[in-house]
Amino acid sequence: MLFPSLTPLFLILIAVVILTCIWLNTLSSRIGVPALLAFMLLGMLFANNGLWPVRFDNYDFAKETCTVALIFIMFYGGFGTRWESVKPVVRESILLASVGVLATAALVGLFCHYVLHWALLESLLFGAVMGSTDAASVFSILRSKRLGLRNNTAPMLEMESGSNDPAAYMLTVILLSVMNGSASGGGIVWNVFAQIVFGGLGGLVIAWLAVFGFRHIPYFASGFDSLYIFAVAIAAYAFPTMIGGNGYLSAYIVGIVLGNEEFNNKKSLVSFFDGFTGLMQVLIFFLLGLLAHPAQMHKAVLPAIAIFLFMLLVARPAAVFGILTPFRKYGVKQQALISFVGLRGAASIVFAIMAMVSPAFLEHDIFNVVFVVVLLSIGLQGSLIPWVAHKLDMIDPNADIMKTFNDYSGGTDMLFGRVPVTTDSAWAGREIRTLGLPRNLLIALVMRNGERILPRGSTVLQPGDEVITMTRGFEDTDTFLIEKKVKVDSRRVGSRIADYPGKGLVVMVRRGEENIIPNGDTVLQAGDKLVILNLGQPAVPSGTDDKASEKKA
Asked: Does CATH place domain 56-291+299-394 in 1.10.1840.10?
């Protein structure tokens, strides 16, 4: 049996695991250790021989689940990439994501063969499995510690770690086919060609169709734009894979194209996929923990430590320095930091599971070795990234790491407001430059008889205009909006707001389908809902006859 039946006790256990994951995520951001490490350890607690053993050894199920999860991880790796930030280093990033992966895999494979005395093909397979770096862990550390890095280092790390999984996947597939005896020289050449060309062209075509859909579908109902992107991400992997292309490469290309297009609700989509991709990461690392055999882990510890140290001190630096040094614009310290930040994670886990379920004969326990290497990489290496960046003097205090990502919003969010210009308005008949607006308030648009006018200082506002203003948003935990309904028998009916000021400030009156911005002379009617700005902890004055509901501003 894969899991116990859905008894109330088991459902409670699921809830406890989810709540624990949330708590661990908060804790990890404070101490600078990637949350994925915590999820992996949590999975180990429920592993086959763990503290609370759950019988789970279905590698085929894990492979299919992790393959789907990796689609969205790859897609979001592109979708969250700000092209403007990575454009100056795109050439170097692509070389690191392709040649760098090949070099790292080859060096690790040779180490396993000549030092650990593994079979050559199995050694090279392990190198391919460990060839790519983990974007989620890198991003988690850079974001949580706000590590602004010098000389475009952060954008380079972002694009490299977000795009190097396809190369590692291609190497893994080729080596597994060779070990299975199903590959030939011509077949390998064709496989490489199809993976790159069909994956790349397929991604571009699907991206164009997706952008076309966004521009020509006139209206997405609430939430359906997320489903649209969700379906696009799946199609980006599935169609190229059907014709022999690299589905992960296609998903990344589609993601980076869509992520840099402008469309409605983009920020909410980025937030949605940020959370959803985080869930996929949690799923992969939790499954990794479940598949682990703690009782057998000791057999993998020594070779895993040796491989980890070789990758950290030799293989990764050799690949990075070999690629970046000829450009002559990247110093030794910068290359050393880029080398150190090469964390291993989700993709290596998925590729290790692929190796485990393949018909290829494996003499060594590749999965548990990968487990320990990933544990060391994100736990030890990942937690030391801020310290290493500081020691190498690579931190730029004036750089904002969040500008590297598409969900960046400059400081506090900018909000739009609408102000009608009436015949008795102080703005009527005046030029905008004479209004004496505060510095942080801008008139962004003037709506006049259905026409949109981009305002200038000389624009004269007319009665009937609707002025669209823009200013910085405000949110804190000590300011609350309280909603009170004016009952039929309330003393406020027929009175002005100024007659009963009460506690707080009435900022809006909801009257039927109409939202009214009030002033002191606004006369209240039965059924009105008053939205009141209240300071401090929300409270409803005792003895009132008005039903209130409270929510944070």
From this structure: no
